[in-house]
Amino acid sequence: MLSRIDNQYGKITIDSTLLQQIISNAFEPWSGRVWIANYKGSQSDAAVMLGSFSSLAEVRTEKNAAGIKITIYVMVKFGESISAICSNITQNIADDAKALLGLDVDDVEIIVTAVLAKRASPREIIYSYRHRDVGPVNMIEAAQAFDGLPGESYDLKQNV
Q1: Global pTM?
Q2: Cβ atoms 154, 128 nearer than 8 A
Q3: Tens digit of each residue's pLDDT (9 = 90 or more) over 25-48
């Protein structure tokens, strides 16, 4: 359950399956170019060749005082613009969650775990809706350059 509204007319419960549908809709325009993966970015070469990633799908949601935080792990097809894909998807998810479900969105993070060509090439790139003006950041370089809180590492102006 993501949210619950109680009033004199009754109770409304917003389930996570509604948010999953919003996320699925945000990925539709990018079909065949970006896939939801798991946090390890693990995939077999057979899955890459067949385009069968449904068993890998993982989306994490958590509620905090500022709203809901959504973390999505993805694999991107080689040659695609990571910035354009992530910007579009995060904006659509945040807008639809607010407009359709009335949820306050704290952040939508997309973590690119692999770039796919003939073989999968592991990557560690993060794109955050909250810090969208900075663009994607290489997580390894961010960790080496910053000792503060993990969320603060977005302040790097390094584009990948």
Answers
A1: 0.70
A2: yes
A3: 999 999 889 888 876 555 544 444
For 3-146, CATH number?
3.30.70
Please check whether residue 77 is in contact with residue 114, taking contact to mean a CB–CB distance below 8 angstroms.
no
CA angle 64, 70, 73 (to 5 degrees): 145
HEC-encoded secondary structure of 104-158: CEEEEEEEEEEEECCCEEEEEEEEECCCCCCCCEEHHHHHHHCCCCHHHHHHCCC
Q: Are 13 and 49 in contact (CB under 8 A)?
A: no
Q: How far is C-alpha 73 from the chain's CA centre?
A: 6
Residue 83 · residue 127 · CB < 8 Å: yes
**At which residue do the structure tokens 């619950």 appear?**
4
Q: Could you read off the pLDDT of 69-121 as tens digits, one per residue?
A: 999 988 888 889 888 999 999 999 999 999 988 888 999 999 888 888 877 77
